Structures are given as structure tokens and as C-alpha cells.
Amino acid sequence: MTDMTWKTSIAKVELDDVVVRGHRLSELVGTITYSDMAHLLVRGMLPTEGERAVLDAVLVTLADHGISPTTIVARTLTSCGTPIQASMAGAMLSIADWHGGSGEEMARLLHGLANEVPPGTSETTTASGCAALVERERAAGRALPGFGHPQHSEGDPRARSLFAVARQHGTYARSCELVVALGHALAEASGRESLRQPNITGALAAVMLDLGFPWTSIRGIVISARSLGLTAHVVEELEQGNKWRHAPSEQVEYTGTLPS
Q1: Are 128 and 256 in contact (CB under 8 A)?
Q2: Structure confidence by residue, pLDDT tens digits, 212-257
Q3: Contacts of 92-98 spanning 24+ positions with Cβ under 8 A
Q4: 102-215, which class in CATH?
Q5: Alpha helices of 65-199 — where are they, by DSSP H?
């Protein structure tokens, strides 16, 4: 028989309360922030003031990016009469390898690189390690995630802001150093100066790793933050009263066989 016993160190429901990572939920209500709760749930401990400020900045950065694949999906489903939870679920499923989810891959690469060139490694050895990683990815025909942006050819301002907050609160550490070094290696290898600076995806991955979040949690954090923006888009779509959004016929090119 299959064992249906569940084991968790995250939370426990009691008769008159819920215990979350060793804290009574009734005592957390009104005393900690949403970012504190996110830190507690995923990392297992309450954050310092600096860690809270940086995580706040991450969540704000991710909350909404306007009309994008995720919001298009959410609004299209909503216009068809789909309940909000299904519209949001459909949109969240579009946060994938090429849209919204590439931070997870960047975090995985940075996690591995940090084991190869840990803190204290010389700049020369670090640069060599970054160059080797860039070469491996390019040889495999894979674009290194976290660099370049079609609208921000001179660097992603959101990434600069996130790094500034991390520096201000003392959480800018090895992963941030490595993603910057990777940008230098990528620009040299590709000859494209526009790839030297990390975009928001690269910055996000590095900042979250330096906060102590596991690389496996990054996409979930993105989805969690973006759910706020998706809620706003669903509500706006309902308020606008749009019905059955679809592609106009003049924007659809039929490439099949015509009847004789």
C-alpha cells in the first residue's frame, strides 16, 4: 500500500492556531510583513531588516511588466468568461523558459559557478571560470540567460536599481559579483557590448541567491510576485467588459491548401 503520510517542517495546523516554521500564525499577524512571511516560508527564518528591504525590492520589481505574454493570456481567458483563478493559472503556466522563468536557469548556473569559484577566489581565476562557462554554453548553442534586453540596449535600469538596493543593505555578495563577471566574459566572447550588463533576470537570480534562497525557488518567487499584477489585469479586463478576445481575421494568414 502506498504510504500517504506527509512530512513537512513548514507548517502545522493545530486545534486553535497554525504553527509556521516554529511561530504561531496568530502572533505573526500584524507583526511581520508579506516579505517577512515569504522569507520565513522558503528560507525557514525571519529576515533581517536589510534582507526584508531587498526582498521587498525584488517583489516590487517583478509585480507587473505591462501587456506581456502572461497578462495577454490572463486577459484573453477572462474575456471568455473564465473564473479569475483559472485565468491566473493559465497566465502563470506561460511563465516558462523563454518568458519570466529564465531567472531559474541563471540561478542554477550561478549556483554551480559559485562552487567552482567560491568567495576568496582571485579575480583572474574567477574571470577564467566565467569565460569557461560562457564558452560551454555557446558551444552547446545555448544563449546565456540574464543578459541583453531589446528595450534596454545600454543596460536594464531595473537591474541597476536592484543591485543598488542590495549594496545599500549589505546583501550584495558572491552571486552578484559572479553575474557581473559573467557579463564581462559574455561581452568579450560575443563582441556585443550590449550583453555586458545583466538584465533584470540576471540581477534577480544573483540577488535572490545572495539572500540565501535556493535556485529551485526562483521561478516560484517570480510567479508569486507576478500574481498581484495578474489580479489587476483580470479585474481591469472585467471592468472594461471585453468579450471573447481573439485575433482579427485580417491578422491571420492561412497557409494551408485551398479547396479546388
Answers
A1: no
A2: 999 999 999 999 999 999 999 999 999 999 999 998 999 999 999 9
A3: 92/223, 92/226, 92/227, 92/230, 94/69, 94/70, 95/70, 95/219, 95/222, 95/223, 95/226
A4: mainly alpha
A5: 69-79, 84-93, 102-116, 123-139, 157-168, 174-190
